[in-house]
Design goal:
Immunoglobulin-like, 5-stranded antiparallel beta sheet, 24 strands, Ferric Hydroxamate Uptake Protein, Chain A, domain 1, 12% helix, globular, 333 residues, mainly beta, 5-stranded mixed beta sheet
Length: 333
């Protein structure tokens, strides 16, 4: 497994990043550099993943440039970010980086090839009575030296976990301590949805877990699903939904669940703006356009599906003139 050693260059007087003054102004900035084990050779193309700890912003997944570097102007109010790198099916250790207005931070990631394979937990903590997010809950896993804390939205990330049967522990003042057995899997991110119970209330805590498909995570499906459902942009069918619903094929799944889509893959709503009753949607399979033709992929081969009914809701990677009427994005197993 390729694992990244983290060297945080966070001195008392932060070193300015080239061009930061012109591009970020008073916003914090972050430069990530990915190198080989010796630190002498830059590694371009690695995926850099950033989770904000204290602001309501979508996680970022961006590739390093030809020089192995990635530069970012952070949101003005951001004060902390968790960052790691992914290379193919492998992922690095994660690092928490403090941010400050107008200041630059540098993170150097060095790829090692001898570390054991690890897993990761990503989750949400909420009040089981009110369903409101619970912030500052301490999250730990047995056998792991470090712990995480939920942010204002109740989200947390806990990485570099040894695979195997573990005990998930959550503590928060005013709530009953939760201890829950969980299986950490190699190279897999497991999502955990946790409902904590206020201490005076007599009821069992609520825990739901689901292991993310690694391929869908790399392709950014889970981040688009989270923010798309939060903002109402798009329809998303996860592997769990497809397994539970068991449609005969992808066409039946989309037409039966998304209003305004015809059996020929045409969008009635967008068609009115293009001089006809319907407008042909773009069909994208595993990231590649299929020429606009509707597809009958059987349900047994479907991993996930995304549907965007207009160009305003389309993520940039699925846009273009062929997608002016929206797009059906299909991910196969």
């Amino acid at each position: 497994m390729a694992v990244v050693s983290l060297v945080l260059l966070l001195g008392a007087s932060p070193k300015p990043v080239l061009g930061q003054e012109e591009t970020c102004g008073e916003r914090p900035s972050l430069q990530v550099t990915i190198l080989d084990e010796s630190g002498a050779i830059a590694l371009p193309g690695a995926m850099v993943v950033l989770y904000w700890s204290d602001v309501e912003e979508s996680p970022l997944r961006e590739r390093a440039g030809p020089d192995g570097r990635f530069f970012l102007c952070a949101p003005a109010e951001a004060r902390s970010v968790t960052v790691w790198a992914e290379m193919g099916d492998e992922s690095s250790e994660q690092a928490s980086v403090a941010l400050a207005p107008g200041e630059a931070r540098e993170v150097e990631l060095r790829v090692l090839l001898t570390a054991p394979r690890r897993g990761r937990l990503i989750g949400r903590v909420y009040d089981a009575m009110t369903e409101r997010p619970v912030a500052t809950a301490a999250v730990s896993v047995s056998g792991h030296a470090h712990e995480s804390a939920s942010n204002r939205q109740g989200h947390f990330v806990l990485g570099d976990l040894r695979p195997g049967a573990r005990e998930l522990v959550l503590r928060r003042l005013g709530y009953a301590t939760l201890r829950y057995p969980i299986e950490v899997m190699e190279d897999i991110t497991t999502e955990v949805d946790i409902g904590l119970v206020p201490t005076p209330v007599e009821m069992e805590p609520i825990v739901a877990t689901v292991a993310r498909l690694r391929r869908l995570e790399i392709k950014g499906f889970y981040e688009r699903k989270y923010w798309g459902e939060l903002t109402g942009n798009g329809y998303f069918f996860s592997p769990e939904y497809i397994e539970r619903w068991r449609p005969s094929n992808v066409r039946y799944l989309v037409v039966s669940n998304v209003p305004g889509i015809t059996w020929k893959g045409r969008n009635r709503r967008m068609g009115q703006g293009f001089g006809s009753l319907t407008c042909r949607m773009s069909i994208i399979v595993d990231g590649f356009a299929s020429g606009g033709a509707w597809t009958g992929i059987p349900a047994s081969q479907i991993a996930a599906v995304e549907v965007y009914k207009g160009p305003a809701t389309l993520p940039a990677e699925f846009g273009g003139s062929a997608a002016r009427c929206g797009a059906v994005v299909i991910w196969t197993k």
